[in-house]
Every structure is written in structure tokens, then in C-alpha cells.
Amino acid sequence: MLTEAMSRDSHQFVRLDSGDPAGEGQTSLRNPLFGDPLFGLDAKTLAARMGQAGEPAWRGEQLAEAMYRQRVAELSAITTLPKPLRERLAGEGWEVGRPRIVQVFRSVDGTERYLVEGQSGDPQTVETVWMPEGDDGESGDEVEPEGRHDGGRTTPGRSRATICVSSQVGCAVNCQFCLTAKLGFQRNLSAGEIAGQVIAVFDRHGVEVGRDRVNLVFMGMGEPFLNYDNFMAAVRLLVEEVGLSPQRMTVSTSGIVPGIERFAAELPEVRPKLAISLNAPNNTIRAEMMPINRKWPIEVVVAAARGVKLRPRERITFEYVLLGGVTDGAERAREVARLIRRTGLPAKVNLIAWNPGPGIAYSTPNADSVEEFRRTLADAGVPAYLRRPRGLDIFAACGQLKRTVETENA
Ligand code: SAH
Ligand code: SF4
Predict the structure, then answer these.
(1) How far is the CA of 355 from the centre of ligand 2 (A)?
(2) 237 and 91 share a domain?
(3) Structural domain tally of the chain?
(4) pTM for the full predicted model
(5) Residue 171 is among the residues annotated as catalytic for this protein
(6) Are residues 227 and 188 part of one domain?
(7) pLDDT for 81-138, tens place per residue?
(8) Is-catalytic flag, 175?
(9) Which range of residues forms the domain containing residue 338?
């Protein structure tokens, strides 16, 4: 079993992040009376807050600049604000309250999985994953926007990094093959908790926005479209305050139709790319794997996706988890190809070999059938990419995020 193998070959280490100099080594308990954190508020709201504090509105801009661009994690360290003001605001209970990485698991392949402490005082952490070589599924897409945020320059070794971001603690959707589903739904993350995962990881890896090419995938724990407002507020922060391109972001949904409809109405300046977890060639198999299919079957999801006004050369991604003996096999591949072609959408398929988890009775497909599946799709005119599993030894791969510290004692 994988868990036993992991126990024997433990490559991960666990440490506290040093993003908070004063906090290193401290436990993560917060004051239960912890007020509204500043991190997560946009520049306009920060300006209004400053106004309420009797300060000019441009002080809000300074706060936004410090928290989101300079990544200052403590109010006391925001030196653009006069010291007496910092002290007064801290005395009135103001604090940045940025999410913190409290544990790191490192894979042999360089992938890192983080447990990130949120803002609410909730002791439950969320999970974020850093993949230094990117995610083949997402980077297997030649439609990469160039220039605007890169200046064409990249840094070797980190040019293709991808961060996988969580949107909820646990998940209510209950897909039968997914470990996160086992947690059930615990709570929604705030906008600050979603964007904060990105900023904390940027800090850890010294990412320079505008120079390094980092993709974000909202494919961690949870269903982003069941936490729509906070998810989109986080995206707006990352685009407008941090300076990232929405064309380097992909959100994955299990097919929450009202969410897809709202997403379709977002302005292109802030709309990430869309991925849909198809996972099966037809409604019968899909409904067995994903109970949500009974509410919103494939054709209804596709109809909603058709409402998204794609940018030139943009495609919709269909994710497809290969379950050995269930969703793999050449006949299934041909069925998927027909389905995708029938949608008439500019689309590609990201194939994900199922990653095992304790208590889930599916099996991983063999490597040959995965490649055969990809080729069958490609031969039928459907571009298909294989997403290489990342960080399997630290439970960081797709569908394995479960707020687990299981590898910690390995
Ligand atoms: N809730 C969203 C995003 C998070 S799941 C969604 O379902 O789309 C991200 C991707 O991981 C989905 O495509 C999902 O089908 C896939 N996934 C879940 N469990 C998996 C597992 N055990 N192995 C491989 N992929 C998995
Ligand atoms: Fe939730 Fe996505 Fe897992 Fe389904 S696959 S249970 S929607 S996180």
C-alpha cells in the first residue's frame, strides 16, 4: 500500500515557515476574539477603513502596496506608514492577518505541500502545493500569454512553476474517488485566505511578479464555485493588487452550473481560464463517480460552459481522471472524443491517472493504458495532455489533499 511505502521512504521534512520572523516556532493558536484582518481587503475598502480611522484615503493605497506588492506580513513593518500611526492602529486591533505556512512537506520531485493556517482562528489548516516544474496538464497548452507580465524574461528552474490553491476546507461535492471528499465540507475560505496562500508561497520562493512565470490552478481542496464570491474576490486581488495575469490562472469545477453561469459573466480582465472535471465518458458512469452529475448532467454543464466568451485561442480544459478498469480503455477514449467533439467547444483534455488514497476502492490505471488513452483522443482530433503526478510521496497530488499530517510521522 502507498501509505506503507511512504512510511518506509520518507523524503519529506517538516518545518515552520520563516515568513513571520517573530512567529517562527510558535504554535498557531490565535486569539479567539481576533478581529477582521486587513489582508484580503481591496485597495478601495482599505481606503475606506483609513477614512474611518481619520486618515487620508491614500493611506489605504499604501497598505495595499505593502501587503500585496511588497508582501509585508506585519503592520509594524509597513514603514510607509508613520510609526505613531502603525502603533495607534495596532492598538485599535488592526492587523494584517495574512495566512501563514505552518508546515512543509517536501517531495523527492521538488514538489512542496504546505499546511496553511487561515485567518479565522480556525485550527484547521488548508493545503497548498508548489510544483517547481509546473503542471504538465496546464503547461501543455501552447496558448501561453507572453509579454504583459513577463517582459519575456524568465528565471531558469522556476519558469514553469505552478501553485495549486485551495478554496474551501474539505468539500461537499462527494466525488467517490477524491480524498478531500472524505473530509466533508468544513468551511469556506475567505478571499484573504485564498489569495494569502499564493502570497505566502511567493514569499517562500522569492517569486518576483512580472519576472517569474508562475501559473495558478484553483484545484486544491474544495469546490471554488461553491465559494464563488470569495474565490472571485481573491482572483481580483491577485490580478488588481498583486499584478498577476488571469490568463495564468485556471479554475477547476466539478460542474456547478450556477457558478459557471456567473463565471461566464465576469470581465475578461479578471476571468481565469476554465477547467471542468468531466472524468467520465457518459452520464451513467459520471453519476456513479460524481453524485453532483444527477443535479447537473454533462450536457447541462457543457451548455453553461458555452456561455463563457473565450479569448482568442483560449480553450476549455476537460479534466479526466483515469480510474483503472472504470474510465480507461480505448472504447471509453473514443466515447470521450465523440463527446468533446459534439460540444463544438475549443477544448483540450487533461488526463490524470487516479492517485490512490486510503479507504478509496479504485485502482490506478497502468501506464500503457494511460498513453493509449491519450493517443486515441489525439488520433480522434482531441488534444490531450497527461498530467504527471506530483508529490505522490507527500500526498500532494490531485485529489490527495486532505489536511493530512499523515506523512509527518513517517
Ligand atoms: N473541486 C474542483 C477542484 C479540485 S479537484 C473539481 O473537482 O474540479 C481538482 C481535480 O482533481 C479534479 O479534476 C478532480 O477530478 C481531480 N481528482 C480528485 N481526486 C483525484 C484523485 N484521487 N486522483 C486524481 N485526480 C483526482
Ligand atoms: Fe470536491 Fe473536486 Fe474532490 Fe469532487 S474532486 S470532492 S468537487 S475537491
Answers:
(1) 13
(2) no
(3) 2
(4) 0.88
(5) no
(6) yes
(7) 999 999 999 999 999 999 999 999 999 989 999 999 999 788 889 999 999 976 655 6
(8) no
(9) 100-394
